[in-house]
Write a structure and sequence with these properties.
Layout: E1 2-7, E2 10-15, E3 32-38, E4 46-54, E5 62-67, E6 71-77, E7 82-91, E8 103-106
Antiparallel strand pairs: 1-2, 2-3, 3-6, 4-5, 4-7, 7-8
């Protein structure tokens, strides 16, 4: 299943999104991941992207710069834990856009 959201006309999604953990699922520390993809920003000033994530809506305690890539895999997550994810666009001076709309997914 794909979770879709929009930001500045772009379409963002998380692959393999699950609404809840499977019954009896174990929480394994640091063994899960989430695959992400998004459309290129329409701004010609964007030189890269930053994925931000956390376990509470709007509170991102993890981040990952991905350069010009339009996909990323966030690794080292806790299996069965719900993460809230957004993407920021970066310019050459290091300024960042506001976060995209947020999606949530359970790491597997």
């Amino acid at each position: 299943m794909l979770a879709l959201l929009g930001a500045g006309g772009a379409l963002w999604y998380v692959a393999g999104r699950s609404p809840q953990p499977a019954a009896g699922a174990l929480k394994e520390s640091g063994t899960a991941s989430l695959k992400l993809a998004w459309d290129k920003s329409p701004s010609d000033q964007v030189v890269g992207y930053r994925v931000v994530y956390g376990t509470k809506p709007g509170r991102y305690d993890g981040s990952m710069d991905v350069g010009n890539a339009l996909t990323a895999t966030v690794t080292g997550l806790h299996s069965g834990t719900r993460y809230f994810i957004a993407v920021l666009a970066l310019d050459a001076q290091g300024n960042q856009s506001p976060p995209s709309n947020e999606v949530d997914a359970i790491a597997r």
